[in-house]
Amino acid sequence: MKTPASIDAERLDGWSRELARFSDDPAPAVRRVLYTPTDLEGRAYVHGLAKDAGLSLRVDPIGNAFYRLEGTDPSLPAVATGSHLDAIPNAGRFDGTVGVLGGIAALESIARAGLKPKRAIEVIAFTSEEPTRFGIGCVGSRLLAGALTPDAVRALRDGEGRAFEAVRAEAGFSGALEEVVLKPGHFHAFVELHVEQGPVLEREKVAIGAVTAIAAPASYEITIRGEGGHAGGALMPTRRDALCGAADFVLAVERSAKRSATGDTVGTVGVCRVFPGAVNGIPNRVELTLDLRDTALEARDAAFAQIEAAIDTIRAERGLTVELRTLNADPPATADAGIVDAVERSAAALGLSSMRLPSRAYHDALFLARVAPMGMVFVPSAGGLSHRPDEHTDPEEVARGAEVLARTLLHLAEGDDA
Ligand code: HGY
Ligand code: MN
Ligand code: MN
User: Fold this and answer.
1) pTM score, two decimals?
2) Digit-coded pLDDT (tens) for 59-99
3) How far is the CA of 56 from the centre of ligand 1 (A)?
4) What atom of ligand 1 comes closest to residue 129's alpha carbon?
5) Which domains does the chain show, CATH number per domain?
6) Whole-number Cα distances in Å, 308 to 10, 56, 305, 339
7) What is the whole-number distance in angstroms between the Cα of residue 363 and the centre of ligand 1?
C-alpha cells in the first residue's frame, strides 16, 4: 500500500504555538474555556488550517467540528480521528490539540501522497472535552455517542448559574441538540492521538503508546453545611465547622485511593469553595468536587464505598450535613484489538518502538468507543506532566505520532473490512 507523506515537525509545532496564543492565561499557560471568545478564536484558527489542508468543514449544533477528506466510496461509513481544543485553567499547549492538529496534518500527508482512501476520513474537534465550565467533561462526544441526552445537556448550568442553551446561543451555535446524536454505524472506526499525560513512555524510552483501555472516570459535587459564627466568641466545643468536615473528607479521599488494591485508583478534590470566606468567620458551608478513577470499575466502586462511609462519620461526629451529587460515573472502555495491532504495525513500519498501556486520563475516545471500534495513539509527556504550563512533548515526537496516526487511519479506510 502506498504510504502517506512525512510530516514536518517544526511546521506542526508552529501550528501548536500559534494556537496557544488564544488563551485567557498568560503564556506559557493556556486556558481556553468552552464558548468563551478565546475558545471561538482558537476554533476559527484551526478551521483555517483544515481549510488550507483541503478538508471540508461541518460544525454541528453543539460546536463539534468535522474536517473531512473525501473517500472514493461516499456510501461507506467514514473513519474518524480527533480530540479537543479546550484547555483547563493553567494548562499546557499539548493536551487535546495534538490530536486535532496532528489529525489535520495526518490527512494532509495522505492527500499530499496522492492517496485517495476508499472511506472518507474525518478529524473531529470535539466541543467541551474539559469539565471546566459545566462540571462534566466530554459534553460534545457524550452527546454524539448518546451517553448524554439533549435534555440532560439543556439542564446543565455553569458556575454562574447560566443555562447551557443560553451560553451556546450567545457563542453563535444554533440548531437542535437532537441533530448532534450520531445514527448507529455512522463511523467505521475512531482513533485518537493524544499526549500520554503520564510517565510511562518516557520512563520506558518508547516512542508510541498503543492504548489498550481508558480508565473509568467519575466526578461528584459535595456540599458540607455546618454553623457559622464569630472566630473569637464561639468556643471550640460548640462549633460545627464545615471546613473541618471538608478536611476530613479530603483526607478520606486520599486514604481510600491509596489503599486501593489495584494501585490504579486515583482520587482528587480539585475545587474547594469556603463560605463566608472571612478571616474571622467560622465556615458554615464548603463546596467541593471529587474526581475518582480506576481502570477497574470494581476498584473505583470500592473506593467510593469507603468515601461514603467517611461521609457518614463526618455527619455523625461533627453534626454536619453532607450532600453528594453525581456529575458522571462512567464505565471504562476497551480499545479494539484490530486497531491496537494497526497502531503497533504502523509504528514498526516507521521504525518506531511501541508498547501497550492503559490511559488513566479520559478522552473523547471513551465515548466514541460506544458507537465505533476505538483506538488511541499516545506520544510521550515530558516528566509525565500535564494540565500544567510546563507540559511538553518534542515536536519530532508529535510529528511521529501523527505519522503513525496517518498510517493507522489509512489502513482502516482501506482495510479488507473497508
Ligand atoms: O481529566 C481528564 O482526564 C481529561 O484530561 N479531561
Ligand atoms: Mn485534559
Ligand atoms: Mn485531553
Assistant:
1) 0.93
2) 999 999 999 999 999 999 999 999 999 999 999 999 999 99
3) 28
4) 6
5) 9-215+332-414 (3.40.630.10), 216-329 (3.30.70.360)
6) 50, 49, 5, 39
7) 6
Q: Is the CB of 214 under 6 A from ligand 1?
A: no
Regarding the beta carbon of 361 and ligand 1, being less than 6 Å apart is answered yes
Q: What is the DSSP track for 329-391?
A: EPPPEE--HHHHHHHHHHHHHTT--EEEEEESS--THHHHTTTS-EEEEEE--GGG--SSTT-
pLDDT at residue 286 in the model: 98
Residue nearest to atom 3 of ligand 1 (CA): 361
What average pLDDT does the segment 337-364 reach? Answer: 98
Q: Alpha carbon of 365 to those of 9, 135, 374: distances in Å?
A: 25, 19, 7
**Grid coordinates standing for 252?**
478520606
- Beta-ladder partners of 189: 79
Distance between CA atoms of residues 250 and 333, nearest Å: 28
Any ligand 1 atom below 6 A from CB of 196:
no
Task: Name the percent of the chain in helix, strand, coil, to the closest 5.
Answer: 35, 25, 40
- pLDDT of 418 strictly over 70: no
